[in-house]
């Protein structure tokens, strides 16, 4: 466990908002770059007086996850000149519940002692032993937080409840590794919705595609554009006009999904998509089925599609990666939309370069 946490935990930081309304990065371990500190200051909710207080939020930047817990200082506190503070954890893994629990303990420690020293002791304990505990501030045990639970925490059923048959558009975009941008003015709604989307392609179990809290700043957008496919959440309505950022645009506030012009050919819907949509909706609307059972149903159908696709692969030369036999695919005489989907899926699964 100790080795695992040493590999996953990257750092801890402290941001304070003083009685003058200024938000400052006051401490971190180990050191970090000025550019990354500026990004984390932008993410926390203390730098703009008009922003609502967000007790917990998370996101990713260049494969580094950040988790930010923010608290208001009660009047009877040792921190006399501070009104709010944020604890920032940076890690290599996606596990919001785990780091929310850990950061809450760090917050209680900082509230009590008013110095990062005691907080640092607990951080080092988790880093080296995977555990920190005290009667006053609570206990944290890393092994209590299975990564699969984090993957399953997002609700696919809620996605289907909001979008019905159109959920298959999101499924198709994820399968084809397209760029999905999700807009809503409320960050908590964005976080809840976007974290569930990768579960629709459970066979990959890849949450590195998730960029749940993106600002329209050049550094973040340049990093995002380096990703071949992603799910990006944004609270700035201007993202609607940034057609260079998405293949599929989801306006959560209006319950609308839009396919961009450049993605329409690859995203052509047909009989197979209708069948997929019906399967997803029927499974999600079954009151007897849990969220994990819905994910399993979708995953089984996905494996069936991939097995069908694999039957059209061949090895041309010994030692080479299998490639798609296009002639065999055409001889099967699938409907045009199905053939088109399988063709682009083969590219997404790296069976074919297009």
From TrEMBL:
GO terms for biological process: protein transport; regulation of early endosome to late endosome transport. It comes from the Eukaryota. The keyword Transport does not apply. It is found in: Late endosome. Keywords: Endosome, Guanine-nucleotide releasing factor. The keyword Kinase does not apply. InterPro entries: FAM45, Tripartite_DENN. GO terms for molecular function: guanyl-nucleotide exchange factor activity; small GTPase binding. GO terms for cellular component: late endosome. Residues 1-354 form the UDENN domain. Pfam families: SPA. Signal peptide: none annotated. Its main location: other. Belongs to the DENND10 family. This is UDENN domain-containing protein. It comes from Naja naja (Indian cobra). The lineage of its organism: Eukaryota, Metazoa, Chordata, Craniata, Vertebrata.
């Amino acid at each position: 466990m100790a080795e695992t946490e040493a590999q996953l935990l990257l750092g801890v930081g402290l941001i304070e908002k003083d009685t003058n309304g200024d938000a400052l990065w006051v401490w971190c371990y180990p050191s970090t770059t000025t550019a990354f500190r500026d990004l984390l200051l932008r993410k926390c909710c203390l730098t703009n007086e008009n922003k609502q207080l967000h007790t917990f939020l998370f996101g990713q930047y260049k494969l580094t996850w950040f988790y930010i817990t923010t608290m208001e200082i009660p009047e009877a506190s040792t921190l006399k000149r501070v009104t709010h503070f944020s604890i920032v954890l940076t890690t290599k893994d996606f596990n919001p519940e785990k780091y929310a629990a850990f950061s809450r303990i760090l917050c209680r420690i900082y509230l009590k002692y008013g110095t990062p020293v005691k907080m640092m002791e607990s951080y080092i304990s988790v880093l080296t032993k995977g555990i920190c505990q005290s009667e006053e501030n609570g206990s944290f045990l890393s092994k209590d937080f299975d990564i699969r639970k984090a993957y399953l925490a997002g609700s696919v059923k809620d996605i289907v409840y909001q979008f019905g048959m159109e959920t298959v558009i999101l499924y198709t975009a994820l399968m084809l590794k397209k760029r999905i941008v999700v807009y809503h003015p409320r960050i908590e709604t964005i976080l809840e919705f976007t974290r569930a989307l990768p579960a629709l392609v459970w066979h990959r179990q890849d949450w590195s595609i998730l960029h749940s809290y993106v600002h329209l700043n050049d550094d973040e957008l340049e990093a995002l554009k380096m990703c071949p496919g992603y799910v990006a959440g944004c609270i700035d309505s201007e993202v609607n006009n940034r057609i260079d950022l998405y293949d599929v645009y989801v306006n959560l506030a209006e319950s609308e999904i839009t396919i961009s012009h450049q993605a329409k050919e690859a995203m052509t819907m047909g009989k197979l998509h209708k069948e997929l949509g019906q399967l997803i909706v029927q499974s999600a609307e079954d009151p007897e089925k849990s969220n994990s059972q819905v994910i399993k149903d979708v995953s089984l159908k996905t494996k069936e599609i991939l097995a069908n696709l694999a039957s059209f692969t061949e090895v041309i030369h010994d030692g080479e990666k299998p490639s798609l036999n296009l002639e065999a695919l055409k001889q099967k005489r699938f409907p045009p939309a199905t053939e088109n989907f399988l063709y682009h899926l083969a590219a997404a699964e790296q069976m074919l370069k297009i």
